Amino acid sequence: MTTVVAQGTFDILHPGHVHYLSDAAAMGDQLHVIVARGGNVTHKPKPVLSDGQRRRMVDALDVVDEAHLGHPEDIFVPIERIDPDVIVLGYDQHHDEERLRTALQSRGIDCRVERASARDTPADELASTGRIIDRIVERRC
Ligand SMILES: Cc1cc2nc3c(=O)[nH]c(=O)nc-3n(C[C@H](O)[C@H](O)[C@H](O)COP(=O)(O)O)c2cc1C
Ligand SMILES: Nc1ncnc2c1ncn2[C@@H]1O[C@H](COP(=O)(O)OP(=O)(O)OP(=O)(O)O)[C@@H](O)[C@H]1O
């Protein structure tokens, strides 16, 4: 049984998220997803939706076995509990794979780090939370 972990903010689900999570699920038998706490999202605007709503929506996806809210302070606490064989990063996520491997080793966590593939977005789709919000502002405000 290969356990896989994916993680992200997942604010306003879109086909890019489905692609990432399907790719991650295909790398093992069981997919656990860690949903970032809004308070820890500092590299882009804070999520619009609450921590609980984002977790519930990810948990409802077919490819996901279980979605967990992230830890408020220590990102390795949920990893230690889930004990994955593989962590799959999104194709464009800012985390440095080598630094993550080193940090996992120093915590005594034995797991691989992989990257999901990118996806070509069809012309009629918006596969970006930021772009969906821009479209809403443009059309509804
Ligand atoms: C292995 C790993 C575990 C993580 N665990 C948590 C966590 O427990 N709590 C949290 O708030 N963020 C956690 N994060 C960080 C968020 O998921 C991070 O903000 C996310 O990578 C943002 O991605 P996005 O910009 O694609 O949404 C973790 C990141 C990694 C790489
Ligand atoms: N079009 C896409 N193709 C492949 N993966 C994607 C795509 N869109 C998002 N993802 C993956 O899902 C992860 C989580 O997405 P995230 O919550 O950051 O939303 P986002 O839509 O990329 O956000 P924003 O557009 O506001 O930067 C991303 O880091 C990325 O790896």
Judged by helices, strands and strand pairing, the structural class is alpha/beta
Strand order of the largest sheet: 3-2-1-4-5
Ligands in the model, by name, code or SMILES, are: flavin mononucleotide, adenosine-5'-triphosphate
Low-confidence stretches: none
CATH hierarchy, class: Alpha Beta
Q: What's the helix count?
A: 5
So, the CATH homologous superfamily? HUPs
CATH architecture assignment: 3-Layer(aba) Sandwich
Helix content: 25-40%
Q: Which whole number gives the mean pLDDT? A: 97
What is the general shape? globular
Radius of gyration: 15 Å
N-to-C order of helices and strands: EHEHEHEHEH
Q: Beta-sheet strand percentage?
A: 15-25%
Distance between the termini: 49 Å
Q: Compute the number of strand runs.
A: 5
- Domain count: the total is 1
For the largest beta-sheet, the strand count, sense and barrel status come to:
5 strands, parallel
Write the layout of secondary structure elements.
Layout: E1 3-8, H1 15-25, E2 30-35, H2 51-59, E3 66-69, H3 76-82, E4 86-89, H4 97-106, E5 112-115, H5 129-140
Parallel strand pairs: 1-2, 1-4, 2-3, 4-5
